[in-house]
């Protein structure tokens, strides 16, 4: 038995020794078995075709503006680990920009003998607001979430001698000033939460040892994460700390007079601070005074007014049955709201100086995803506009609020989109809820139940799945045909648990109601079959992380609906997930198996425990990464091992040795992973 007597015994717990010699021997045997089945000449051609998409030099180089420069991180065939680089605005507008390379990660990896993966940079805001020079670079030694933080000088194009250098950990770090950091990291015993994240934030002075960092902010160990940051905005300088209790509850504090002053709102109200404004987004209906604000609203009030006791909140957005707020972004004088209306984009522009008067951007075609966000909130009212669709390569435009946006860059086409169409349909779930899904397939498709169809979804953590162009999906699935000439169909399901319709859509599938997400996905599968798009034998599904738990439940709960399942970096053992990697941070989503009452509903969606001897399961590929320090590889290992032990011969397992939760540290690894999943599904559904 496990340490909790009500939980079932686990004969494969030995596979939880991630780097143990016996588990790794098992991994190598399974990798060899899977590769012997899948890797042939057709597979290698597919892998190279996918790699050509990922390495394309015509991709849009996404940039972040700091001062007078535009910074970009770039990987291609010549630079698999990547280049961190910058250019001017004039340079960026050129068809072939001239980039100043700041850091060659491949060269760094070769020099230091560590396979570094670039994970981002955080600049010190200079006093003049323009001459950005110092940055904290985040480098992962294996592609996992744990990163080493090193101080970098962009003018000298090198690491600062004797500068800040924080050992690899799941750290949270912010510049306090040029010689001090607000740092949450692994300071030793008692400094991490049960979720493996920092439970303290301390002040680290230049030249001081980690052990001498000064205590600043601390949370209980059973909470998820502590973080303190310094807001350097001129005229609004302040320190802010957040006690992240769980994924959906947090308490925000301001530093006032040597103490931490809490922002007095319920913990499920999302708090935002921008100059003089306080924004609030409740995740459940909230009645702070006389008015009730529905979940998913966005509210605003002057920070000083709120702290003085006022609750006269301006309503910036109020959701309805079809429309939700996805994100927002401040320019110097305006607020941009990115909305979804039945999973198609709308964008509003709000003017606080005019009583939050709202106008709408007209650059949102139906069945597309469009996002607007500030170029530099401290430097005018320019905004980026990124538009994409299943058949529309991404475009990047730039505009100034009040004027039109001008196209700056466009991604290339990787397949003939003219041969395909996009449709939106609604399936009816078990409780009568209408569940939207997108269908992408040939315009001349026969509705003869013969089309190889890939159904994807996620359904968790209020994450929305929206239309997006994918050259990989186009080449690896849509443009392929079987011997009968039937082309691939791709379907994206917008099931509950996600955020497509706001917090209510997410909360409808939390914990004891988790089954609704799976019922929604199954309803989409049945709708595809009943409409003649495909058949059970020709329908496959894929998902990763929480999406891996989703398709794991399709495998065990709805095997009659699918011919094949691709299950990536998954949660599957819901009895022990809280004890593995960062698992305890997701209790708010799934529940706590240590509680016998909660285990009663959790066990109903724990695929590892739902496997049955003698059951007929669809062909299954389970894939993961040794270096995944978020979900970890062991749940995937144990699921495959138990299926094999039960005599399920049509299960295949593959574990990348590095790459973290993404399963890939460079484009070559990503291409191998994508090829494994697509080749497996295509073969299983068409042979």
Characterization of this structure:
This protein has an 8-stranded mixed sheet, with helices on both faces. Among the domains are: 20-52 and 414-686, 3-Layer(aba) Sandwich (Rossmann fold), CATH 3.40.50.1820; 60-169. Helix 2 packs antiparallel against helix 6 and helix 2 (41-54) crosses helix 14 (667-686). The chain has 14 helices and 37 strands. A hairpin with a 4-residue loop joins strand 28 (392-400) and strand 29. The protein is an alpha+beta fold.
Q: Which strand order do you get reading across the main beta sheet?
A: 30-31-33-32-34-35-36-37
User: N-to-C terminal Cα separation, in Å?
Assistant: 42 Å
Average predicted local confidence, pLDDT: 96
Helix content: 10-25%
**Main sheet record:** 8 strands, mixed
Number of strands: 37
Domain Peptidase S9A N-terminal: 3-208
Protein name: Prolyl oligopeptidase
Organism: Arthrobacter mangrovi
InterPro entries: AB_hydrolase_fold (IPR029058), Pept_S9A_N (IPR023302), Peptidase_S9_cat (IPR001375), Peptidase_S9A (IPR002470), Prolyl_oligopep/macrocyclase (IPR051167)
């Amino acid at each position: 038995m496990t340490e909790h007597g009500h939980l079932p015994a686990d004969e494969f717990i030995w596979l939880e020794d991630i780097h143990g010699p016996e588990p790794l021997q098992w991994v190598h045997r399974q990798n060899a078995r899977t590769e012997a089945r899948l890797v042939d000449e057709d597979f290698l051609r597919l892998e190279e075709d996918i790699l050509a998409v990922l390495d394309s030099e015509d991709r849009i180089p996404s940039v972040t503006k700091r001062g007078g420069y535009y910074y970009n991180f770039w990987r291609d065939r010549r630079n698999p680990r990547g280049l961190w680089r910058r250019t001017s605005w004039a340079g960026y507008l050129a068809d072939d920009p001239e980039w100043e390379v700041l850091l060659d990660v491949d060269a760094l990896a070769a020099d230091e003998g560590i396979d570094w993966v670039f994970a981002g940079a955080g600049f010190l805001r200079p006093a003049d607001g323009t001459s950005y020079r110092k940055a904290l670079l985040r480098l992962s030694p294996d592609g996992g979430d744990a990163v080493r933080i090193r101080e970098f000088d962009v003018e000298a194009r090198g690491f600062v001698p004797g500068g800040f250098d924080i050992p690899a950990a799941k750290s949270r770090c912010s510049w306090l000033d040029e010689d001090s950091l607000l740092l949450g990291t692994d300071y030793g015993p008692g400094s991490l939460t049960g979720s493996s994240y920092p439970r303290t934030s301390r002040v680290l002075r230049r030249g001081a040892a980690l052990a001498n960092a000064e205590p600043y902010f601390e949370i209980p160990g059973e909470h998820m994460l502590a973080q303190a940051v310094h807001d350097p905005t001129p005229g609004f300088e302040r320190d802010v700390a957040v006690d992240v209790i769980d994924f959906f509850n947090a308490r925000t504090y301001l530093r006032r007079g040597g103490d931490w002053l809490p922002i007095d709102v319920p913990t499920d109200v999302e708090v935002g601070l921008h100059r003089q404004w306080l924004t609030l987004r409740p995740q459940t209906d909230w009645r702070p005074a006389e008015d009730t604000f529905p979940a998913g609203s966005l509210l605003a009030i002057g920070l000083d007014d709120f702290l003085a006791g006022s609750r006269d909140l301006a309503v910036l957005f109020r959701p309805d049955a079809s429309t939700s707020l996805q994100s927002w972004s401040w320019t110097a004088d305006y607020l941009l709201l990115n909305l979804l209306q039945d999973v198609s984009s709308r964008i509003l522009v709000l003017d606080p100086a005019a009583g939050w008067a709202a106008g709408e951007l007209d650059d949102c075609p139906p069945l597309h995803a469009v996002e607007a966000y500030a170029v530099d909130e401290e430097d005018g009212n320019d905004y980026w506009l990124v538009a994409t669709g299943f058949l529309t390569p991404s475009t990047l435009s730039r505009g100034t609020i009040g004027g039109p946006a001008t196209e700056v860059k466009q991604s290339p086409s990787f397949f003939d989109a003219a041969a395909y169409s996009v449709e939106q349909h609604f399936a009816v779930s078990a409780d009568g809820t209408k569940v939207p899904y997108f269908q992408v397939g040939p315009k001349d498709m026969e509705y003869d139940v013969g089309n190889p169809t890939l159904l994807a979804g996620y359904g968790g953590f209020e994450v929305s799945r929206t239309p997006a162009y994918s050259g990989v999906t186009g080449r690896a699935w849509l443009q392929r045909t079987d011997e009968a000439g039937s082309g691939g169909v791709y379907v994206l399901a917008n099931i509950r648990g996600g955020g497509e319709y706001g917090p209510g859509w997410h909360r409808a599938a939390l914990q004891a109601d988790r089954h609704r997400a799976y019922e929604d996905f199954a309803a989409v599968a049945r709708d595809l079959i009943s409409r003649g798009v495909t058949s059970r034998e020709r329908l496959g599904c894929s998902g990763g992380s929480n999406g891996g738990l989703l398709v794991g439940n399709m495998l065990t709960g709805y095997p009659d609906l699918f011919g094949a399942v691709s299950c990536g970096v998954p949660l599957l053992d819901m009895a022990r997930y809280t004890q593995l990697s960062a698992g305890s941070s997701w209790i708010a989503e799934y529940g706590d198996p240590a509680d016998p009452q909660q285990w009663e509903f959790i066990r109903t969606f724990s695929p590892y425990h739902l496997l049955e001897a003698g059951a007929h399961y669809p062909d299954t590929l389970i894939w993961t990464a040794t270096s995944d320090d978020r979900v970890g590889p062991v749940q995937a290992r144990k699921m495959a091992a138990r299926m094999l032990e039960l005599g399920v011969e049509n299960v295949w397992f593959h574990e990348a040795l590095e790459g973290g939760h993404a399963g890939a540290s460079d484009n070559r690894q990503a291409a191998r992973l994508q090829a494994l999943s697509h080749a497996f599904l295509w073969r299983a559904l068409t042979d």
